[in-house]
């Protein structure tokens, strides 16, 4: 599915907010280090993706109970679930002038039960007409998400037969259900992931 930005105002995908706080010193310093080794936009985007994917462990994989949701906290504490890691990657991209936003999938267990919303990102690099989705969740056995602007290599391809789907919109800011579940949680293992979001295909 081709990602669709929720607004035609490109500046919305470069803005800083409470969660995507790319005006924070930690985000700026991290971006500067990555940019020094990868000066062109394509190389920088790949470096930022691989940094968040590989150097910020997913809370569930590492069993780290700290809850993060601001990009600056994700990069400082080096932990977060998929939503938080997506905030961090979007912040790093926007810090260097690359339009980026937040995307979501509805995923289920193998029998189609227990749906949850999974977070990832989309970016638009110079010279490209279409947005590309990337998944910085973090790899492990059975998951091999990669940086590829032409063919998606996400953590989990959706399985329509089980009621899974990709939401078409690229959000400039985290939707309220996503941000609220992170703010409410006192530990990572107790985060109450939303089961759906507005804007599902067919709505």
TrEMBL record:
UniProt xrefs under Pfam families: Transglut_core (PF01841)
SUPFAM superfamilies xrefs: Cysteine proteinases
InterPro entries: Papain-like_cys_pep_sf (IPR038765), Transglutaminase-like (IPR002931)
Domain Transglutaminase-like: 29-136
Region forming the signal peptide: none
Family annotation (Gene3D superfamilies): 3.10.620.30
PANTHER family attached to this UniProt entry: BLR5614 PROTEIN-RELATED, CONSERVED INTEGRAL MEMBRANE PROTEIN
Protein name in the entry: Transglutaminase family protein
